[in-house]
Amino acid sequence: MSGIHAMLVHFPIAFWALASLMIIVGALMQGHWAQLAKAGLLPVLILGLLGGIAGMVSGWLVWPADANLYSPLTRNHLLMSFWAFGIYAVVTALVWRYRDLVFEGAFRWAMLVLALMGGLFFAISGTLGGHLAGSPTPFSDLLGAGGWTVYETFYVPDWVLVVILILAVASAVAGFTAKTRS
Ligand code: HEM
């Protein structure tokens, strides 16, 4: 199953990377490329979610469940995969429901934040997967510099909690302000 997982995870990684790029182009640019990015975004997101499901199911079957849950490295990999999946699921639901409106006004900044966060989380998941398969990358040193020793710790560094809190408050304020205006 290890080989199958390694093969299948290329699908969510590729589709989510493309989706984030399309959101950046759609939100920040005008003209032909922006139109193309907006028009193609939903199918790419749906394919990304299907790939994510395949990646998560196959990943869970690589090792016995006890081994998955015992190792902090695997738990970090699992957690980051779930976060990435959750973020792209929200992005897919928003694009499905609001179509091109997600690229209007303040909405597009929220989409940009989600796209960048999703990209960061699947990148972390991928690099931790590389560790599990015996191919670590220098990206983990970067995580270590941020206070996260991926081999040993299974926790969220304090500064991440502060960022989450600031984002939550900013989102609530932006939401209330927009509601009051309308
Ligand atoms: C969308 C979700 C996921 C992505 C993008 C992902 C990504 C990856 C990547 C890139 C690798 C390295 C493959 C290689 O170079 O051979 C890997 C390995 C691994 N992943 Fe995942 N993964 C996901 C979900 C999961 C889940 C839910 C589990 C369950 C615990 C899991 C467990 C593993 C294990 C055990 C390995 C090491 C395989 C080995 O020994 O060769 N993955 N993953």
From TrEMBL:
The chain crosses the membrane at residues 6-29, 41-63, 78-98, 110-134, 154-178. Keywords: Membrane, Transmembrane, Transmembrane helix. It comes from the Bacteria. Residues 4-133 form the DUF2231 domain. This is DUF2231 domain-containing protein. It comes from Marinospirillum celere.
